Backbone:
């Protein structure tokens, strides 16, 4: 027995001693590093297309399914657009949709595609997650089918800063078709603004914004103790995604090194940018004259704004209808058009967080961009054609652009945004153009296969930890500690 | 083989089937489910834990022995997060497990005295246990919400709301309160049943020997409910080492990435598409954590076990009889 025990222990010790202490130095896929040209395509195509005498493709009852990350107030609008498309293409293409929440979207959709079980044909989600899909060989490019259908597709026809990431770093391939852009916007109470702004004009920079807020707060609190100039919901991801992201962008921070995908937040200039971004938000909550309260949630901020207890409401562009409705419910006798035209206006976060207003970064707005991607499970060329036709419809049709704008999303397709009908539509003219004054100032996360690790576990964790602190005492050490964890994890992936 | 031998074997098989058939019939559905959903995944999990494995890139799977397990003792982000989460859970368990034994025991003891309306109290105490953890999260989330709309914050002050769910210490306190409220009933029922089974004659004998109420509890009640206490302690310890539901439902949206326990770490990493290349490592973490839980339960069983020589009262009694 003793001999056998010694032998087993010896073998176990030998096995352990021979083990590699870090076998994850060399990535085995799923992670990054798969850039450049594709030598061995992972997608296939079956069948042939039929064309009529005019050269138009003939499709017969082709069903396609889209899984989208859109699941807020804008999902109803998306379904309306899909219904219009189905009516227009009755007998040829029928589109069905489902929605998956952003939390876990990549995992859920990747599983479905990988197991080819309930897999979507088209994915409509944030562009930032598509690099991982391509690296894991879960999506295929649109090139082949665009060529077959003679669709003259070029990324030059889209806003350059958004479309520059759409090839997912694979040369000569169209993996993504960009749709729109979105970030957090600022709604304001026109009646209160008029009291404190001579001609009802809006602040154009941070200094004016804070001056107006403090003046309004001082004036309103004489009669209303519950008044805070800014209602800002800090209890949802959107605060970290869009407000914190915009503060970083406007103060010149670099999220990650696009060559190595590693984060370099402790590099002196970058560290200063992070500190400035933190301080620019802290001033809202912890200065001698704070203009907002940290820790408010969606209900409390909406309630404050609906009840005239706030001048500004930082909220989402696709929540516009909810805001109009909520305001109307608290102010009986007002019609929806009255509220839109006379009571609630909206503008943007450009220059609101930049401590250096002379910097070219000061006007930047950070946000997300939706894009279409084609699942690798689509092999039938007729189905690919149906997908391409839908994508082309969504990104080139002006009526779709107007409908989608009313859901709060600015089109990044030049074919739509340069159209007069689109520009003249009420919501685009009064809201969308104020939400995003210059689409070229819009920045996104770009192409990193480590989005979750870099942003959710890194960038946003920094804000979540440090924005609870009233001073910058712990900024440098916390940022360094989170940077170590993020880079450590990126090394392992 | 002669026909007689074959017949004998057939008869034996028939006899076995006749004798144990019913039992096998009753047990087999559970055994089948246990094998499919526990044994096979466990074996697969162990095999995966010995590999560098990515479910989206099966061709690149490589056998790496116990390297994934060694990673848990290295200086890397997974090891740091795991040990930190385990530490937090153990500290929580040191407070929560005794609370979840002492409070139900105290309540069971009081109810066992059968005060007026004790049946209503018994139902009230047990009621929270039938609620799902999600509902517990909604209830406690509403009560302890950080915003001024939270019930407690609205009661006291709306100007400076208390960050119940954002502040780590306060959040753990809320998790503790929710755990006590939710799970007291389960342990209470087991201990109530045990208390009712303590022979009255033992109490009478102790009283005749001049035992006080405290002595009655220590020398009569506790030794007689030791078995049930062991079960309660065993279940509570395992349950709270595997802490997951409470911190998950009580983490506010912005804290959802906070890892409070090893189970949360395993779950979050396993559900992350970007970390799919670390599936082998996460499997190793899960198995290693399972071993830690087993170790704690072995220690608990060992400490609760009757000693070979018997209890000191048995020894004293034997000496008296001799």
Residues:
């Amino acid at each position: 027995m003793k001999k056998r025990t010694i032998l087993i222990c010896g073998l176990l010790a030998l096995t352990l001693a021979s083990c590699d202490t870090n076998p994850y130095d060399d990535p085995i896929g799923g992670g990054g590093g798969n850039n450049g040209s594709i030598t061995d395509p992972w997608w296939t195509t079956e069948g042939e297309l039929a064309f009529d005498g005019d050269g138009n493709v003939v499709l017969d009852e082709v069903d396609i399914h889209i899984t989208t990350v859109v699941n807020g107030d804008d999902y109803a609008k998306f379904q309306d657009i899909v219904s219009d498309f189905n009516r227009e293409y009755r007998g040829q293409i029928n589109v069905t949709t489902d929605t998956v929440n952003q939390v876990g979207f990549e995992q859920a959709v990747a599983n479905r595609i990988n197991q080819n079980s309930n897999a979507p044909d088209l994915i409509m989600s944030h562009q930032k997650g598509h690099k991982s899909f391509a690296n894991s060989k879960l999506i295929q490019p649109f090139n082949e089918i665009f060529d077959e259908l003679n669709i003259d597709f070029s990324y030059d026809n889209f806003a350059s800063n958004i479309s520059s990431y759409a090839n997912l770093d694979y040369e000569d391939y169209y993996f993504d078709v960009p749709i729109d852009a979105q970030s957090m916007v600022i709604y304001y109470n026109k009646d209160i603004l008029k009291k404190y702004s001579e001609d009802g004009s809006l602040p154009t920079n941070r200094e004016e914004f804070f001056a107006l807020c403090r003046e309004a707060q001082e004036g309103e609190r004489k009669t209303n103790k519950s008044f805070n100039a800014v209602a800002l919901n800090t209890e949802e991801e959107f605060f970290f995604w869009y407000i914190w992201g915009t503060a970083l962008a406007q103060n010149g921070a670099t999220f990650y090194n696009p060559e190595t995908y590693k984060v370099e937040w402790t590099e002196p200039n970058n560290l200063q940018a992070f500190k400035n971004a933190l301080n620019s938000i802290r001033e809202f909550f912890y200065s001698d004259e704070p203009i907002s309260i940290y820790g408010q949630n969606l209900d409390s901020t909406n309630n404050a704004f609906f009840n005239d207890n706030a001048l500004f409401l930082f909220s989402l562009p696709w929540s516009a209808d909810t805001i109009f409705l909520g305001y109307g419910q608290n102010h009986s006798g007002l019609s929806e058009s009255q509220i839109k035209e006379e009571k609630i206006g909206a503008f943007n976060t450009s220059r609101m967080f930049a401590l250096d207003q002379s910097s070219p970064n000061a006007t930047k707005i950070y946000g997300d961009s939706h894009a279409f991607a084609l699942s690798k499970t689509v092999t039938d060329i007729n189905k690919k054609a149906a997908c391409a036709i839908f994508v082309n419809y969504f990104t080139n049709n002006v009526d779709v652009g107007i409908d989608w704008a009313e859901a709060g999303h600015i089109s990044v397709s030049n074919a739509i945004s340069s159209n007069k009908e689109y520009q003249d539509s009420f919501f685009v003219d009064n809201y969308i153009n104020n939400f995003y004054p210059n689409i070229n100032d819009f920045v996104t996360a770009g192409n990193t296969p480590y989005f979750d690790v870099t942003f959710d576990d890194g960038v946003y964790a920094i804000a979540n930890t440090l924005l609870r602190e009233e001073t910058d005492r712990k900024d440098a050490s916390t940022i360094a500690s989170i940077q170590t964890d993020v880079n450590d994890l990126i090394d392992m992936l | 083989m002669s026909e007689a031998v074959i017949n004998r074997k057939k008869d034996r098989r028939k006899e076995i089937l006749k004798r144990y058939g019913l039992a096998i019939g009753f047990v087999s559905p559970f055994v089948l489910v246990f094998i499919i959903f526990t044994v096979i995944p466990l074996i697969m999990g162990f095999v995966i834990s010995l590999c560098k494995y990515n479910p989206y890139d099966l061709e690149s799977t490589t056998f790496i022995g116990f390297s994934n397990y060694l990673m848990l003792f290295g200086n890397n982000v997974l090891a740091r997060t795991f040990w930190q989460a385990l530490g937090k859970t153990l500290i929580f368990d040191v407070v929560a497990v005794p609370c979840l034994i002492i409070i139900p025991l105290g309540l069971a003891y009081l109810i066992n005295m059968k005060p007026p309306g004790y049946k209503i109290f018994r139902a009230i105490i047990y009621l929270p246990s039938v609620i799902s953890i999600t509902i517990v999260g909604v209830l406690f989330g509403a009560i302890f919400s950080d915003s001024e709309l939270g019930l407690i914050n609205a009661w006291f002050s709306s100007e400076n709301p208390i960050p119940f769910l954002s502040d780590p210490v306060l959040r753990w306190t809320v998790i503790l309160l929710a755990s006590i409220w939710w799970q007291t009933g389960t342990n209470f029922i087991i201990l109530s049943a045990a208390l009712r089974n303590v022979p009255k004659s033992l109490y009478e004998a102790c009283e005749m020997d001049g035992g006080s109420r405290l002595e009655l509890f220590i020398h009569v009640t506790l030794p007689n409910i030791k078995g049930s206490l062991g079960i309660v302690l065993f279940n509570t310890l395992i349950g709270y080492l595997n802490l997951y539901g409470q911190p998950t439902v009580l983490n506010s949206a912005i804290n959802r990435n906070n890892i409070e326990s090893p189970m949360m770490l395993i779950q979050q990493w396993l559900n992350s598409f970007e970390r799919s290349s670390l599936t082998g490592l996460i499997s190793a973490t899960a198995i290693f954590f399972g071993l830690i839980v087993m170790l704690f339960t072995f220690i608990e069983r060992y400490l609760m076990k009757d000693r070979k020589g018997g209890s000191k009262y048995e020894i004293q009694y034997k000496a008296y009889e001799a």
Chain A touches chain B through 55 residues (CB under 8 Å). Confidence is low (pLDDT under 50) at residues 27-33 of chain A.
